[in-house]
């Protein structure tokens, strides 16, 4: 039995999508051999979980058929413990929650979207302090531990009055490769899920739009970059404020188990010559 030939347009799109990922892998020492072995596990994991017949787990033979992975490898990979680390690490989840509280909930903000500088100690700032902010979200971790980590990551800064200032209007570490890699996996995964849904599932599509031009000057690109940084962040902050309010409203509802990711992105590079583009087709 032969599998149908994949659409040429899909193969071309996949090749383009993989280029920046391969660039990252080569820069970080991930070889083709290592990646191909890892992908065997991903193919088997997805086929096992999402390609069932009559809600029954597929056999090793069926997984081998639809994935092209040898049956001996399928058996070995299915018996191994699956890598299910799809969620953000707990420390980043807590950090994002703290930033959301800081930005949207009194007394930690001057108004929604305007986080206040917080005295470090509750003995100085009382309910409006960094100590209290952390304690209101978790009783298991000390505020000093969070502060030291956030200072390392560039999320906050201290002033000469021992007050803590939020450096970024969303929890995006400025330093720390592991932390940035976790967000890379989270954001690219969810963007890809939305795009794959729109290609493969009938029904209402997820919102996924972009604006693209290829005849701009460097000065024009810089102007657009500045507008995106300002107005894009303002839009995200409005979404964040709405989501925070709805989460607080729905917190006791049994159905409050849905998660969302909302993203905006900006990218620029020199436009390729038409001849180069044509040769890639």
Topology:
Elements: H1 8-27, H2 32-50, H3 60-67, H4 71-79, H5 90-104, E1 109-111, E2 114-115, E3 118-119, H6 122-125, H7 130-137, H8 143-153, E4 156-158, E5 163-166, H9 177-200, H10 218-250, H11 274-280
Helix pairs in contact: 2-3, 2-4, 3-4
Features:
3-stranded antiparallel beta sheet, 11 helices, mainly alpha, 5% strand
Please provide a written account of the structure:
The protein is mainly α and 281 residues long. Among the domains are: 1-84, no CATH class; 90-166. It contains 11 helices and 5 strands, in the order H-H-H-H-H-E-E-E-H-H-H-E-E-H-H-H. The chain has helices at residues 8-27, 32-50, 60-67, 71-79, 90-104, 122-125, 130-137, 143-153, 177-200, 218-250, 274-280, and strands at residues 109-111, 114-115, 118-119, 156-158, 163-166. The protein has a 3-stranded antiparallel β-sheet. Strands 1-2 form a two-stranded antiparallel sheet. The longest helix has 33 residues, at 218-250. The radius of gyration is 23 Å and the shape is globular.
Number of separate helices: 11
Mean pLDDT: 85
Distance between the termini: 29 Å
The radius of gyration over CA amounts to 23 Å
Helical amount among residues, as a percent range? 55-70%
Which structural class best describes the helix and strand composition? mainly alpha
Largest beta-sheet details: 3 strands, antiparallel
DSSP E strands, number: 5
